[in-house]
Amino acid sequence: MLKEELYQIMNENPVFHLATMDGEQPRVRGMLLFRADDQGIIFHTASTKDVYQQIMKNPKVELCFQGQGIQVRVTGVLEQVDDENLRTEIFEHPTRKFLQAWKEQGIDGLLHIFRLKNGKAVTWTMETNFDEKKLIQL
């Protein structure tokens, strides 16, 4: 499978699960993708959340997307993104209307953007359940 096909699956199925570490304890939660392309897999969270603290302590993560009968798992290291244009794009995006209240309340500084670049992906389907995993460089 080509990486462009993986990006398409991710973008068409933007709810994913993010695995982080909390000390020695793995933590998994649902997240909302902003976008996935050659620039990386981009999402955001608030600095008030436990997930933010976990990422800051250990940016090694795994993301799991499900769609079209395919599971896509991506392993890599997150980087925090400080880009005002991207920040504005996120706040103005129609899928992020819930963030407008943050701006109105003056707490938009709580939003932090993360990107996973150069990740390694594997796919899984029922048909390939016992096949050898093939890493796809993103």
Walk me through the topology:
Elements: H1 3-12, E1 15-22, E2 25-37, E3 40-46, H2 50-57, E4 60-67, E5 70-81, H3 84-92, H4 100-105, E6 111-116, E7 120-124, E8 136-137
Antiparallel strand pairs: 1-2, 1-4, 2-3, 3-6, 4-5, 5-6, 5-7, 7-8
Short synopsis of the structure:
By secondary structure, the protein is of the alpha+beta class. It has helices at 3-12, 50-57, 84-92, 100-105, and strands at residues 15-22, 25-37, 40-46, 60-67, 70-81, 111-116, 120-124, 136-137. It has a single domain, classed as Electron Transport, Fmn-binding Protein, Chain A (Pnp Oxidase, Chain A, Roll).
Could you give the distance between the termini? 11 Å
User: Can you write the helix and strand succession as a string?
Assistant: HEEEHEEHHEEE
Given the C-alpha coordinates, what overall shape results? globular
Please, what is the average pLDDT? Answer: 96
Largest sheet: 6 strands, antiparallel, barrel
CATH class: Mainly Beta
Q: How many domains, as an integer?
A: 1
CATH architecture label name:
Roll
Q: Largest beta sheet: what is the strand line-up?
A: 1-2-3-6-5-4
The number of helical segments is: 4
Strands, total number: 8
User: Radius of gyration, rounded?
Assistant: 15 Å
Question: Strand percentage, roughly?
Answer: 35-45%
Share in helix = 10-25%
CATH fold-level topology: Pnp Oxidase, Chain A
Give the low-confidence spans.
none
Would you give an account of this structure?
The protein is an alpha+beta fold and 138 residues long. It has a single domain, classed as Pnp Oxidase, Chain A, CATH 2.30.110.10. It is built from 4 helices and 8 strands, in the order αβββαββααβββ. The chain has a 6-stranded antiparallel beta barrel. β4 and β5 form a beta hairpin. The radius of gyration is 15 Å and the shape is globular. The protein starts with a helix and ends with a strand.
